[in-house]
Write a structure and sequence with these properties.
The protein has a four-stranded mixed β-sheet with strand order 1-7-4-5. A three-stranded antiparallel β-sheet has the order 2-3-6. By secondary structure, it is of the alpha+beta class. The protein has four helices and seven strands; from the N terminus they run H-H-E-H-E-E-E-E-E-H-E. It starts with a helix and ends with a strand. The radius of gyration is 33 Å and the shape is rod-shaped. The longest helix is centred in the first third of the chain and has 51 residues.
C-alpha cells in the first residue's frame, strides 16, 4: 500500500467513525428532545387540569357554606364553663381562593374575658389552621355578634373538620 492509499484508507476510516459518532450524537439529541417534549406535554396537561379545577364556574359559595356548617363540631363544655352559649353561627364571604368568614352570636354572662377559637383539620385530622377572636367581658352585655375573617388560601376547600371552643 502506498502512502497515498494509506492516507485515503485513514481518511475514509476517520470519516466513517466521525459520521457514526455524529449519527449517535444526533440520535441521543433526538431522544433528549423527545423526553423534553413529553415532559412539557405532561406539564401542560397538569397545568390545564389545575386551571380547570380552579375555574370559578364550578365555584358555588352556597354549597361551600352548607358543607362548612355541616363539619363544625362545637365543644359545648368549654362554652358552659364560661356561662355563655353559641346561639348561632354561619359562614359568609366565601372567596374563590378559599378565604371566608365565620360569623357567630354569643349569649350569657361573662365573668372574665375569653377567646373564641377555631381549629381547622384536613382529612387525616391534621391541624391546618387556627384562629381566634377576643371577647372582653367588660364590653360584653349579655348578647353580641362577631366575625372571624379566615384569610388562609384554600382553607374552605381543604378543611374536613372545624372545631369551635372557648379558652381564657
Amino acid at each position: 500500500m502506498t502512502e497515498k492509499e494509506g492516507k485515503q484508507v485513514w481518511d475514509a476510516a476517520w470519516e466513517a467513525a466521525w459520521n457514526e459518532a455524529m449519527k449517535q450524537s444526533q440520535e441521543q439529541y433526538n431522544e433528549l428532545v423527545d423526553q423534553y417534549n413529553s415532559l412539557l406535554d405532561d406539564y401542560n396537561q397538569l397545568l390545564e387540569k389545575t386551571q380547570n379545577n380552579n375555574e370559578t364556574e364550578d365555584f358555588n359559595p352556597e354549597e361551600i357554606k352548607k358543607y362548612l356548617k355541616s363539619i363544625v363540631e362545637i365543644k359545648q363544655p368549654t362554652f358552659d364553663s364560661f356561662a355563655i352559649k353559641l346561639t348561632n353561627f354561619a359562614f359568609s364571604q366565601i372567596e374563590d381562593d378559599g378565604w371566608f368568614e365565620f360569623n357567630y352570636e354569643l349569649e350569657g354572662q361573662l365573668e372574665e374575658s375569653v377567646y373564641i377559637k377555631l381549629n381547622f383539620y384536613d382529612e387525616d385530622n391534621n391541624l391546618l389552621y387556627t384562629d381566634k377572636d377576643f371577647i372582653c367581658n367588660d364590653d360584653f352585655s349579655g348578647f353580641d355578634t362577631s366575625t372571624i375573617a379566615l384569610h388562609e388560601k384554600n382553607l374552605a376547600f381543604n378543611t374536613k373538620k372545624i372545631l369551635v371552643y372557648v379558652t381564657k
